[in-house]
Here is the input.
Amino acid sequence: MTMKNQEKLAVVICNYNKVKSTVDCIASVLASKLLDVGSNLKIFVIDNASDDDSQTVIAKTYGDTIVFTHSDVDLGSCGGLNLGIEQALQEGFEYICCLGEEITVAPDALTAMLDYMITSPLTGLVGGKVYHKHMPHYIQQFGISVDFKHCRASMLYADTPDSENIPNIVYCDAVSSCCMMVRADAIRNVGLMPTDNFLYWDDTEWGYRIKQAGFEVVALGAAHLYHAASPMHRCDNTKVNYYMTRNCMNFFMKYTKPEACNKMSLVLLRSVFEAFYLHRMGHAHNMAQSDVSALLDAVNGVHGKAADDRILENDDNGLGFVSFFQEQESVYMEDDDPFLEQVIRQINPDIVFMQLPSPSAVTIIRCDSILGIKDFNFSLDFSENVVYIDKNYRMLATREDVALIKNYEPSLQLFLYAMQPAVFRRVAEIRGAENHLLF
Here is the structure.
């Protein structure tokens, strides 16, 4: 389809202390083929109270090419994007694309997304196929699915090598705010992005609301984008853990059907306790405290930006994952896992992957969760170099870890007995105050 000049697209980019990434993101938008077909494109950049030189550098680099707004207050990712979305709506834009500052877009990505929106009037929200920038053949995410059975939101096709077997269009529940194009009619129907979350889960909740309002939510394989964040990136503080935990609980306490609330409470509490226990195993005391703080704030109805004492220094080293493999000379993987092999090679480029097990090499056994291990395939007497690694890169490697795992289940049952009534109380409060959100 050849777009007409009157087709207008606003791009909103929210920057927070990532000036270089934001400059690169803007450059990729300006290199878009969308401009070659005469489409009206306007870029709104929101600086979310950065304390680096973002304001000076971005203004100097792009000047009048963009609309730049600096907020003196940190509004969170959703608040910053909302500021740009409101500006775009006021200027009459019918299509608005939100981009994360660490995203670069392929030249035809915005064209593909806008074409789809124009030709599919039932679609309210479109995302793209997001790749790892440092491993561009691997998908980072391709749509988000909300799983009420397990109380989680899953990034579809995450860490999967791209192939012809992956569909070109994925109908999903939400798309990531690192790249989402939204129809103005959908915003007028459900409102702006929910600001209660401050950080994380805002895009999932917004997409879910848009879908519940009757619009389609789609991830488009023809729109290629690249995200600079590494899967092993470690945040300096506990904010990701806190907001992810609190806002996940808030989402499912708000939207789970009444008849499923008992099971929902058990699933959520199990998830929080599992994270707490794993942090305890790793001697990550600040992260364990973050788990507790997020749980207490969720059941007590705390929203928005967290209190200062909730965000602590990140002392989680991933149960020694990075440092462990930095020190190894050779490993043997019981099951092939190309993505894990790529991650380990990034940590230690000189490491040798053996074709057969050897007492001199670390033997890696994959599992869903190290806390779910019941029978060990290898006795730790075989070699101190046998490790179990789960899907979240948590690692079991010592006899102390084994002893803690044996105590996990009885500790969990006591925790559930103590905390489930608090979840029930909070659900009752939400349902009493926000019946319009139920279905």
Q: What stands out?
A: The first helix runs from residue 19 to 30. The two ends are 38 Å apart (CA to CA).
